[in-house]
Amino acid sequence: MALRSLLTVAERGQILAMPTGPEDLEAHYTPSDGDMSLIRQRRGDANRLGFAIQLCLLRHPGIALAEDTEVAPELVSWMASRLAVSIDAWDEYGTREETRQEHGREIRAYLGISAFGIADFRRLVEHVSDVAAHTDKGLLLVESAMDFLQAQKIALPGIGIIERACAQALTRANRRIYATLGEQLSVGHRQRLDGLLRRRPDRSVTEIGWLRQAPLRPNARAMNEHIDRLTTWRALELPWAAGRLVHRNRLLKLAREGASMTAADLAKFEPARRYATLFAMATESMATVTDEIIDLHDRIIGRLIRTAQNKQNQATLASRSTVAAMMRMHSRLGDALFEAKENGEDPFAAIETAIGWESLATSIAHAKELTRPGLEDHLALVSTHFTTLRRYTPAFLAVLDLHAAPAAQDLLAAINVIRSLNSTGARRLPDDAPTSFIRPRWKPLVFTDTGLDRGFYEFCALTELKNALRSGDMWVTGSRQFRDFDDYLLASVDYTGMKTTGKLPLVTTDGNTRYLDDRLALLQERLKEVNDLASRDELPGVLITGKGVKITPLETIVPQHAQPLIDQASAMFPRIRITDLLMEVDTWTGFTRHFTNLKSGQPSKDKQLLLTAILADGINLGLTKMSESCTGVSYAQLDRHQASYIRDETYSAALAELVNTQHVHPFATHWGDGTTSSSDGQRFRAGSKAESTGHVNPKYGAEPGRLIYTHVSDQYSPFHSKLINVGDRDATYVLDGLLYHESDLAIQEHYTDTAGFTDHLFALMHLLGYRFAPRIRNIGDTRLYTPTNGPGHATLAPLIGGSLNTKTIAAHWDEILRLAASIKTGTVTASLMMRKLGAYPRQNGLATALRELGRLERTLFLLDWLQNPGLRRKVTAGLNKGEARNTLARAVFFNRLGEIRDRSFEQQRYRASGLNLLTAAIVLWNTVYLDRTITTLNKDENATDPELLRFLSPLGWEHINLTGDYTWPRANQIKPGKYRPLRRPAKP
C-alpha cells in the first residue's frame, strides 16, 4: 500500500463505482451472442453467473475479481435474471480460488487484455509521473493511471496498488521539479537564496520573513516600504523565466508549502528541495508584492477621495446657519429693492436702509466662499493631499512595468510624462502632454487659464491608472492579478480543439451558434406566454399595471402548526460542550485525518491538540488565549501544530468530509437532495492590528471590515466559504463556491439576494450549467429584454427595457465561450474574471456581449419568477437557510467581540475556514440527534407527521456550551456506535 492514501473514501467509491440502475446496467453489461456462448460453456449455475460477473467487471470498470472485491447486488441480481439462474448461486461461486483465477485468465484472453505485472507497474509509474508534473491531486492521478491501463488493455489491479504507483510517481515528479529548477540556479543564486533564511541585522525577523510581510496601512510610508521589498526581490537577479519550466499548479503548491514553514524548517530541507522551494516562494512572493503595491495605491486613492468627500460634507453642514442668515438678509434686500422701484425711490438708499453696504459686502464675501470650487465638487479638495501622493508616486511609477491596450495608450503616455518629470525634477507639464484620458468631471480642475494644473493632472492620471488596471486595459509585468487579459484564458489552439471535437465543458459542447438561436426562440415564446397570462390577470400573486409590477408577499415559510414540534425537538437535545461535540463528530467522520503533516503527509497523532487549534480559529479565540483556556497546552505546541497541519487545503478536505456525511444522512433528505444552494456574505469588523487591512463599504458604515462569503446547501451544509473585501460585490464570488468546493454535492440551482447577481453572472452561470435564481429587490425596476424591436407584449410593456443586441452576442460568441471554458477548466478563477468584467468600460466588446447574453438569461428567469410562485417560495426558503446559518456563525464567532484582529491575511483566512468547519460540525451533530429525537418521539407517542420534518432546523446552538475552559476529558467521550441520551421529551 502507499505510505499515505491519495484518495478520500468518497473518491475511492467514485473510482470503483459500478452501474446500479437498470438503464446503466443494460448499457454497460448486456452480453453479446459471443459472450453468451462463452458463458454457457461453464458447468453449473454458480460458475456461469460468476464467469459472467467477472466478464462484466473486466469490461467496466476494468477490474479483476478478487476475493475481497465488493460487487454491487444490483449487478448480481440483474445478471442472474439474464441467465435465468438463482441469485443464491453467487454465494457458491469462487469457493475454489483456482476456479476464479482460471476464469479470469480465460476472460482476459477472450477480451484481449493482459494481467497486471511488475513491468506494467514500472510503466504506470513513468506515465503518471508525467501527469504528476502538472497536478498532485490524487483523484486526477488515479484516473489517469486507470485510463492508461485501459488504453494498454491491461486489467486493473487493486486500487491500493494503483495508489502506490501514483504515490511513487508523485515522489518522482517532485524530484524532477526540484532538479529542473535547480539546474537553472548558479552558485551565486543559491547563496542569495540561502541568505533569505538569515536574520536581518536591524530586525528580529529573517530576510524572507520581512519580504513576505503584508503592508500595515494604506499610506505612503507602507507603500515605500513595500516598494523596497519588491526592489529587494528583484535584486536577487534570479532566473525568473525558470518558473515557466514547471507547471503553474506545482510551482504554486511548492510556494504554499514553503510559506507554511519556518525558516528553520526550510533550512533543514535537502538542498535540491530547499532551493526549489525558495525559488518558488520568491517567484510567487514577488508577484504578490506587486499586486499588493497596486492594491495599496488603489486604497490610498480611494481614501483621499473619501476624505475630500467628508470635508465637503462637513463644510456643507457647517455653512447651513450662514446660508440661512444670508437668505434672510437677501430676502430683506429684495423686498426693499422692489418697494423702492414701486415708489420711485433711490435703490442705493434702499440698500443702505435695509441691510447696509458693509453687511452686503460681508454677505457677498461669504457667498463667494461657499461657491468656491471645493464646495461644489469634492475633487477640488484633494489638492491638499498632493504632498501625500508625491511621497510615493515617483517610486511607485518607476517600479512598475506598465503596458496598455490601444484604448489606454494615451493614459500610458501621460504616465510616462509624469515619470519623466519625476526623474528630471521639472515642474511644468509640457504643452503636448496627453489629455484625451481626462474625463469631463476632471476637466474644470485640470485645465486652467494658465495651462494644465500639474497636481490635478497627476491625480487624474493616477486615478485613471487605478481604473485601467482593474479593468485590464492596462497590465503589469510580473503581476498575478493585473496581467494581460488574454494570458488568463485557455490557449486559442486548446479552445479550438475542444470546440471542434464537441468537448467544451459547457451547456453547448460544440459551441454552435444554433444554441444561441434556440435560446432566443425560447425567449420569444416565453414572452408571449407570460404576456398572455398577464393580459388575462392569470399570473398568481402578480399584478402588472402601467406603474410597474406588484407581487403579493409570500406567507410565512414555517407554518404555525409546525412550531410545537420544533420546540419539542429542540428541548430534547442533549446538552454538550463544544469540545465534546467536535470529538463526537470526529468519531463519526474521522475528519481530523485530513489535517496531514506538511512534510510527511501523515495525520496528526494528537487529535486533541489539533482540535484545540481548530477550535481557536472557529470561535475566534486565537492561540494565545486558547493556550490559557486549555489545561496542559502551551502556545508553542499550538503554534507548531497549526504550522504543520492547518492549511487551506486541509481545511477544505475536512469540510468536504463533514458535508459529504451530512449529504448521505437519511434525515437530511427532509430538507433537500443536495442539488440546490444559496450564498450570502457576512461582515465581521476588522479590529486591532487587522484594522488597517480591512476595507470600508458605506453599506456597513465607516468602520473597516472583512466579509466571509459562504455557500450553504439545501441540507444546511456550509460547503464553501471565502474571505473577501467588504467593498467587493457578492456576485464576484458566487461561481467560486460552486466550482471549487470539494464535496460530493452536485449543485444544479443556486440562489442569492440582490447583491449576488449581475448580468455577466447570469450569462456565465447558464453556460456553466447552473440554474441561477436570485431574489431581486425592487423587481419592478428590473427590466425585461426582447429579441427584436417592434410592438407587441402590450401588457408587459411597462417592464420592457429594450431589445437585445443579438449582433454583438453573435460577433463575440467565441470569446464568450472561450472565457466560460477557461473558468470551467480552472485555467483562471471565476472571481478574478468577474472583477475584471465588472470593471471593463462600456465599449469593451466582450463585456458588452456577455452583458447582453446575461440580459437574455435574466429575462427568462424573471418570466419564470412572475409565473411561478413555487419558484419564489423555493428561493426564499433557500436564502432563509443561509441567513439562519449566518446567525449561528455570529453566535460561534463570539470572542474578541466578534472582530477579526489578525493582521496576516493567511491567519484571517484560517479564522473564516475554522468558523465554517465548526458550523458544519454543529449542523451535522444536530442532524444526527434530530433523527434520534424524531425516532424517540415516534416510539413514545403517535407518529410525527412527515410533512412537518422539513421545518426542523439543525442550526440551533442553545444546547451547546461555547464558553468556559476548553478541555477534552476522556470521561465525556462517547464510544463508537453509541450516542448521548436525549433529554426527557417535552409535551407539545
UniProtKB/TrEMBL annotation:
Region (Disordered): 675-697
Coiled coil ranges: none
Record keywords: DNA recombination, DNA-binding, Transposition
GO biological process terms, semicolon-separated: DNA transposition
Record carries keyword DNA-binding: yes
NCBIfam families for the chain: transpos_Tn3
Annotated family: Belongs to the transposase 7 family.
Protein name, per record: TnpA family transposase
Species this chain originates from: Arthrobacter pigmenti
